[in-house]
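Task card 7
Instruction: Convert sequence to structure tokens.
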Amino acid sequence: MAVAYELPQIQFSLDALEPSISGQIMDLHYNRHHRTYIANLNAALGAQAEAASSNDLVKQLELQAAINFNAGGHINHSLFWESLAPASSGCNNIAAVAPTLNDAITKRWGSFDSFKTAFEASALAIQGSGWQWLVQDAQTKWLELTTSKDQDLPKGGKGVVLGVDMWEHAYYLQYFNNKKEYLTKIWDVINWPTAEKRYKGDPRAVFGSLAGLASHL
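Output:
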């Protein structure tokens, strides 16, 4: 029987990220978009299990694109919610709450402000829908900026430290086509303690069952 995935619990109220991200956007993004990815993923996994039981290899191959897309949507959004915290939580002061990661960022880009400039420039260069990522090389531990299209995961098995959703549904109702303002405001609600844990530890210890799902894509 295929595993059924569920909508993860967000650790703050849907309006707690205002004014950076409106409660209306969070409600639509979490309760509709993310929920739809999960529903479609579960349906595709169920159909794949049936196809496997009947040895229908063609059907299994046809379903793989839907599984990849919707599983990516589930994973990416789960990581995104964990990457956010209300400004009142104090989690957005990287120097105070994520000193190891802050030092690594400063070493890599020269300063935190230079890192933000590079992160935003990379995100604004995305054509269409996608994600902006801060990732870590598993071998060298070197930090890198990368993007992914639609709901793809970062390529090359890089460890996710921070990801920001650059799909229009993440910002358009509030910022319209001003992606730059969305990126400027989102720094106020980044959960740097979570990013610090991802940077310092085994991703499986941070992502839980999502790491297992990612490894099969």
